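Good morning N.,

You mentioned wanting to compare the apo and holo forms, so I went ahead and generated the holo version with NAP. This is what I fed in:
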Amino acid sequence: MSTYLITGVSRGLGFEFLRQLSEDPANTVVGLVRDKATTEKKASVELHDRDNIHLLQGDITDYAFLKKAVDATAAITGGALDYVIANAAFISTWSAFDPIGVLGNQPEKLEQDLLGSLNANVIGNIHLFNLTIPLVLRGHAKKIIAISSGMADIDVITKFDITESAPYSISKAALNAAVAKFSAQYAKDGVLFLSISPGLVDTGNFKDATIEQQQALFALMGKFKKFAPHFTGPTTPDLAIRDVLSVIKKASVDADKGAFISQHGDKNWL
Ligand SMILES: NC(=O)c1ccc[n+]([C@@H]2O[C@H](COP(=O)([O-])OP(=O)(O)OC[C@H]3O[C@@H](n4cnc5c(N)ncnc54)[C@H](OP(=O)(O)O)[C@@H]3O)[C@@H](O)[C@H]2O)c1
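and this is what came out, ligand included:
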């Protein structure tokens, strides 16, 4: 039996974490969402009101809200947590395809986009780690996982000219650094901090893409194929989360502390 806190479970990969982890009735799975009523309805229809799922309202950019949610989690799990999965993220479509130099022609919008990315993906998660660490120290598994992105691999960005999603990539690189810092502090207490990229997964983020965005997405896929010739397109949430959970299960403080790895457990992002 394990206890989990997952952020951003309303849809996409977060909902898939919720679905797969709650399949085992011995698990207690707490999910943080911004719109509790809507997610409750979705979970009721798709997951048939599993009674090991607990949904809490919270926005990771609001510290007071987050603290309340972590306190409520402690009340549900008896004051301890085995796993934290920091999945929620601000994923900007505005800055998804233009290079940062082009975005620089709209400095105010660029600043807004960068701040939005950093607030949710870095600062929100740092607060989440600090608020949950006392619970995790009392848990058995002691694993805090940040869902990152291969888009933050600096060697890949420079080698394959990945100009896309600069603010998002910058925020995920900063998140990886935060995970390494937390690891440096808490590995001695047996806590594994780890950044994992789930690969490229179709979660519907570009279902309303314009023709230009579709063309840009196609061009990005071409760049991906250069560094991963086996790549044929995005995978499904089901497969991606199965892989990520298997990496989480196998990972240990000794072998993986503070690392940034993929759903395959290495640096193969696709
Ligand atoms: N899909 C991919 O190909 C891919 C690739 C690499 C990495 N990732 C990472 O995987 C994770 C999940 O991605 P996804 O594709 O499932 O994204 P998604 O479908 O856009 O879902 C994002 C989730 O984050 C929540 N969220 C956003 N801002 C929040 C905030 N301030 N407070 C609380 N929750 C917030 C959203 O809630 P609302 O419903 O309330 O907006 C939603 O539940 C992200 O960390 C992403 O960076 C995804």
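Residues 184 and 258 are 7 Å apart (CA to CA).

Happy to go through it together on a call whenever suits you.

Best,
F.
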